[in-house]
Write a structure and sequence with these properties.
The longest helix has 11 residues. The strands form two sheets. A three-stranded mixed beta sheet has the order 1-4-5. Strands 2-3 form a two-stranded parallel sheet. About 25% of the residues lie in helices and about 20% in strands.
């Protein structure tokens, strides 16, 4: 699974473009953004709050397994010369080894 982080400030056409680039199986959203998502391709959504919490309680137990450090973990969008966002894939290694993203517990 790769998480594609979408910017809530995007225009409907830009959001549609980003969603189409990654062809997600599910979009997790906040209730106040549902209207904007209604203008994107027909993809199942899960709304944060009660719906999300209910889904978590019904989810099967997840057993983590080792990942290749170069596998994609997250997609962040940048803008490019065309004016449309571009997806940049960040690997497990890039996220876990980057000090800006790490928290150290005592």
């Amino acid at each position: 699974m790769i998480v594609a982080c979408l910017n809530w400030r995007l225009l409907a056409a830009e959001l549609r473009h980003c969603v189409t680039l990654v062809s997600p199986r599910l979009i997790i959203t906040e209730l106040d953004l549902q209207e904007l998502l209604d203008q994107t391709p027909n993809i199942p959504t899960l709304t944060l709050g009660r719906e999300y919490e209910d889904a978590l309680t019904q989810a099967p137990h997840f057993t983590p397994f080792p990942q290749d450090p170069e596998n994609g973990l997250v997609i962040l969008y940048t803008s490019g010369t065309t004016g449309l966002p571009k997806g940049a894939v960040l690997s497990h290694r890039a996220i876990t080894l980057c000090p800006r993203f790490c928290a150290v517990a005592p």
